Amino acid sequence: MHLNPYGKDAVNLAADLANRRPASPEELADRCRAAGLVLERPVTSRDLARLAVALEAWEKVVDASDDERERAELLNEMLSEATAHPRLTDHAGSGWHLHYRDADQPLGSLLFALISVGTALHLVGRGMHRLRRCAIADCALIFADTSPTGRQRYCSPACTNRDAVRRHRARAKR
Fold first, then answer.
1. Alpha-carbon distance 128 to 132, whole Å?
2. H or E segment to which residue 97 belongs
3. How far apart are CA 143 and CA 108, in angstroms?
4. What is the spatial distance between Cα 49 and Cα 55, in angstroms, rounded to a whole number?
5. C-alpha to C-alpha distance for 82 and 162, rounded to whole angstroms
6. Where are the alpha helices (DSSP H) in the chain?
7. Residues whose CB falls within 8 Å of the CB of residue 7, separated by 6 or more in sequence, listed in order
8. Residue 33 · residue 39 · CB < 8 Å
């Protein structure tokens, strides 16, 4: 039984796709398969175009990090455009779970729904502040804060270390 196929995996996939946009349908297919998605039809350039629309809308949600109401409104717009009534499915024999989209959608539309619902569940389940860009000034990467404390500020350990070194050097100059 799947409890939440739209949880942190979906929002992490969104961040990965936004941070490094796929250049071809083949790359999109490979990255989706690597993330555990079951692809039921060939991936096309139309899927890339639909994903681009989804990611543009999603980045507005990410960048509205200082205003919870604006973030909620933007995400609600995505949800209204991309999702359908929940339905039970056992596609590909993977076990019964909920989908928040119509059956037989092309990958671009599937990803739009997955990103929208996954982000909504992530934010309401973990906190509206748990989606942002890296705190390093010259790093614009997006990440979902899945830390136990909810205080993650950096996209990676490398950026965490870079900022610690910068702060140390600034203190040493005093």
1. 10
2. strand 97-99
3. 21
4. 10
5. 38
6. 8-19, 25-34, 45-63, 68-82, 107-126, 157-172
7. 118, 121, 122, 125
8. yes
> 65: which residues sit within 8 A by CB, 6+ positions away?
71, 129, 131, 132, 133
Task: Tell me the residue type at 21.
Answer: R
Percent of the chain clearing pLDDT 70 (strictly above)? 97
Report DSSP state, residue 24: S
Write the pLDDT tens digit of every residue in 30-39: 999 999 888 9
CB 157 within 8 A of CB 148: no
- Local structure of residue 14 (DSSP, 8 states): H
**Mean predicted confidence (pLDDT) in 67-90:** 93
Rounded Cα distance between 107 and 60, Å, is: 22
pTM as predicted:
0.88
Backbone φ, ψ for residue 123 (5° rounding): -70, -40
Task: Enter the tokens of residue 166.
Answer: 């910068």
Q: Give me the pLDDT at residue 1, please.
A: 35
Kindly indicate the confidence band of residue 2, based on its pLDDT and cuts at 50, 70 and 90. very low
Q: Are 50 and 112 in contact (CB under 8 A)?
A: yes
pLDDT digits (tens, 9 = 90+) for 44-57: 999 999 999 999 99
pLDDT in tens, 10-21: 999 999 999 999
DSSP state of 167: H
